[in-house]
Design the sequence.
């Protein structure tokens, strides 16, 4: 009798687990994950948060004295200098409460780097551009301005379409 109850309990647990696994599998199938091609589209919808991230990164990089031109993509909250990448990561954390590597704001900065370097291939666009010997602090500020202007313009266009 005891063995039969234990087998029954195990069967119930197994069936519940199998059911939960099916639900999880279906949910995973229904979750849209952006592909690389989608992430590299230049016409993605923008948000107020994207604009705030870019504005905050520009504030973080307020002067040449706080710019770290030797980026390793390792950013620490206690840092006193920031690379382009780390300023964007810090701004993202402050605005969103988390870092999103492929957020539209960061993608726009990557696109601005591509445009400024005429499509030069980089393994890590933000770090590698920041670390180029020819990159100046004025170049970093210009990249942030281009990205900010693009996001601001698209945001204004999106908002005007929403109004009747």
Sequence:
């Amino acid at each position: 009798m005891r063995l039969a109850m234990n087998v029954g309990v195990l069967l119930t647990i197994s069936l519940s687990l199998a059911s939960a696994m099916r639900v999880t599998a279906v949910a995973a199938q229904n979750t849209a994950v952006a592909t690389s091609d989608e992430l590299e589209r230049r016409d993605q919808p923008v948000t107020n948060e994207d604009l705030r991230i870019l504005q905050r990164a520009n504030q973080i990089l307020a002067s040449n004295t706080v710019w770290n031109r030797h980026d390793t993509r390792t950013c620490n909250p206690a840092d006193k200098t920031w690379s382009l990448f780390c300023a964007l990561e810090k701004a993202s954390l402050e605005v969103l409460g988390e870092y999103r590597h492929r957020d539209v704001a960061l993608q726009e900065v990557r696109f601005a780097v591509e445009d400024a370097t005429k499509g030069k291939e980089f393994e890590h666009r933000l770090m590698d551009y920041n670390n180029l010997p020819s990159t100046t602090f004025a170049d970093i500020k210009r990249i942030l301005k281009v990205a900010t202007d693009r996001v601001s313009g698209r945001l204004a266009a999106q908002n005007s379409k929403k109004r009747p």
Observations:
- Residues 2-30 form the longest helix (29 residues).
- The two ends are 72 Å apart (CA to CA).
- Residues 2 and 17 are 22 Å apart (CA to CA).
- The chain is about 65% helix and 0% strand.
